[in-house]
Write a structure and sequence with these properties.
The structure is a homodimer of 385-residue chains. By secondary structure, chain A is an alpha/beta fold. Chain A is built from 14 helices and 14 strands. A 7-stranded mixed sheet of chain A has the order 2-10-9-8-5-3-4, with helices on both faces. In chain A, helix 10 packs across helix 11. The first copy, chain A, starts with 6 loop residues before the first strand and ends with a helix. The interface between A and B is large, with 46 and 46 residues.
């Protein structure tokens, strides 16, 4: 096998564009100097556009989970009741964090692989009238589901005063997000997915309504105190030492996204999803989710006549290509193909061509080339075809 | 289009492996220090293995053409007669260099796209009994032909005392070369092809027989004086300032080749050639060369029902993928797919999948996916299938 090649097609971390790697390799600078302030001043408006908010998007040197925890400890008081919409492993994580802080936590559970429905929420809102926050996952990485955040938020807003808190780690930057327009209160993302960076930065958008709650919330927090982050960010600085290399990379990645055009970035992700789904359909290999629930950033596949783990081993051993397996209840049952961030139609075609070989080697009955053909046809139709 | 992606599939320069890029980014060191000597001591035996020689392989900070010129000015005296076997643009370059030095130059021309035949050489050797050197091209980059260097050399050795001088720029490192066993006298290669580096280094292997000629050759040369290079290299140093970054990269690239195993490297190139050729055959798009003449490092395609230049434009514009066009008499008639050096079966499949789309857009009548399927089948058969 060709040494030194890695084909990374897991749902994060995603591959790093060369110019982002080069940006991250810059020499260190003082994080209290003008250069750092200039960089933050450049980053701030670009992040706000991606989150669809006029408010500041805080940048924490931490992984996405710290962003989720920051949402909990800032926006939920110790005595609050909350509702968590769980449709996979990352919904569960939100619930785990809430329970760790002894917050009274209700769960609205959706079958893994399905999106949460507005009707489920309606029932839960009626059942728990005192909830102060609703947590949901935008893209559920563990199943490849994109939850209808806009519709869910509209329903919650129409029935309740609860804050709406969204985990957008594995899709924001790859799918459209309109925090202000949709009435989302806290939206969390991370650097290692559609933002085309290594892990290590969490991004947290906060609505005016949420700031009011945060300002009076007695829940203790220090590093994760979003007010400190906001107050510093408004002066183009940070409360604690920032991971500067990741910020250099973030600045470049945001430039790349604006150069491509945010609309084009979202269209590309949509196209990649359609190409991937068409390919597996043509191959006769079942998808975990229905089209309406599918995320543009990751596709979960549930093979019927071969073992997902055998396929993953062939990919790794013969092509140095990584796709993800299933988590928890889906362990050994699915594999997940990431197509977020630095991923082109050419990359998707490569992944399908290689996966076809691995399916054949894993004992799946397919016609070689038919998945690629379907993906090629989808490309030729275009995203609106 | 995804910004910052470049899919480089021309027959050189070829893509650079990440660890080679990292190696080249090392800080500068003094080129007269022990570290440089240690590096050269590490490089020397590895280069000799690739050239298949017990003699030193000189390393010049220069592009491949300087390596060809070094062969001429070192091994050919001003009054000598030489024979150049021309089967494409790079054969012509050897002739141009000889003529520039007013050397009496005979040509044995082969149709572009065909390999030189032993019988052609036999005739030329009889026609020009006084020749002191025969020049030939191992892989003719302009046509994707691999000339039968071993057989041609055997014929020349059996009929003549002429030195045998080989341009191996676009294949050595990707195809087996046994300089000593095959009786080759001077073999030239360059860094930017199968060696997985940027251009800037020329490698020149020299036989014992050639050294004897070189030592008494009155042709003036200074920078290209191979004796100076050899005498210094034997002491692990260089006569003039070496391109150190490229040497750092060379050291790492040679490590990668040894880690993969030279036999495996050659088998991989053979497989890539078979995959590419099977794909175009299945698509019904004519190849320029017959199987027996084909090079494992580059495949030339001569489309019948669409314009090669239209295809190249689609590839560049929609996929940031570069394949080469035709040169001189083949301009606008062919395109050339490079698959040398840092190129895996997964990369080849990607190239074919993307080229299929471009063929369709260029108006070629093909069945989408059928080229990929043929390449996948070739992969599953393996190189000896």
């Amino acid at each position: 096998m060709l040494i030194d090649q890695q084909i990374l097609r897991i749902p994060g971390p995603s591959p790093i564009p060369p110019s982002v790697s080069r940006a991250m390799a810059q020499p260190m600078i003082g994080h209290r100097g003008q250069s750092t302030s200039d960089m933050l001043a450049d980053i701030r408006p670009k992040l706000k556009r991606i989150f669809g908010t006029a408010q500041e998007v805080q940048i924490l040197t931490a992984s996405g989970t710290a962003g989720l925890e920051a949402a909990v400890v800032n926006a939920v008081a110790p005595e609050d009741e909350v509702l968590v919409i769980v449709s996979g492993a990352f919904g569960e994580r939100f619930a785990d964090i809430c329970r760790t802080y002894h917050i009274k936590t209700h769960i609205a559970e959706t079958e893994w692989g399905k999106a949460a429905a507005v009707s489920d929420i309606t029932e839960a809102l009626e059942a728990y009238p005192n909830i102060k926050a609703v947590f949901m996952t935008y893209c559920e990485t563990s199943t490849g589901v994109l939850n209808p955040v806009k519709e869910l938020a509209a329903e919650i807003r129409s029935k309740s005063e609860a804050l709406i808190i969204v985990d957008g780690v594995s899709c924001i930057g790859g799918v459209e997000t309109k925090m202000d327009e949709w009435g989302l209160d806290i939206v969390v993302s991370g650097s290692q997915k559609a933002f085309m960076l290594p892990a290590g930065l969490a991004f947290i958008g906060v609505s005016e309504r949420a700031w009011k709650k945060i300002e009076t919330n007695p829940q203790p927090r220090f590093y994760l105190d979003l007010q400190k982050h906001r107050d510093n960010l408004l002066k183009d600085t940070t409360p604690y030492t920032p991971a500067l290399s990741l910020h250099f990379g973030l600045q470049r990645a945001l430039e790349l996204m604006e150069e491509e055009g945010l609309e084009n970035v979202y269209t590309r992700h949509e196209l990649l999803m359609k190409m991937a789904r068409s390919a597996f359909k043509a191959l006769g290999v079942p998808l975990l989710t229905v089209d309406e629930d599918a995320s543009p950033t990751v596709t979960a596949v549930q093979p019927a006549d071969f073992e997902a783990e055998v396929l993953r081993n062939v990919l790794k051993k013969e092509f140095a290509m990584e796709v993800a397996g299933g988590q928890k209840v889906l362990a050994n049952k699915i594999f997940r193909l990431g197509h977020m961030g630095y991923c082109s139609p050419a990359d998707l075609l490569q992944a399908i061509a290689v996966i076809e070989i691995a399916i054949a080697k894993a004992g799946g009955e397919i016609q070689l080339g038919s998945g690629v053909r379907a993906a090629q046809q989808e490309y030729l139709k275009g995203v609106n075809g």
